[in-house]
Amino acid sequence: MARMRKKGDLPTKICAQCGKPFAWRKKWERVWDEVRYCSDRCRSEAKSSARRGAPDDGARG
To answer: 23, 12 in Cβ contact below 8 A?
Structure first.
């Protein structure tokens, strides 16, 4: 069985929408390299602002 990790030891990223840091989650285990947003809310806001023609931060990967 795997050892428990402290939350501070988990990898983190910066959200492309709100700019806040967020930590790795088990549900993102297989797709961590593709995760860009900290929440569904930020993901939907980014999509809606892109549809409105608002300039984004250019963090496309």
So the answer is: yes
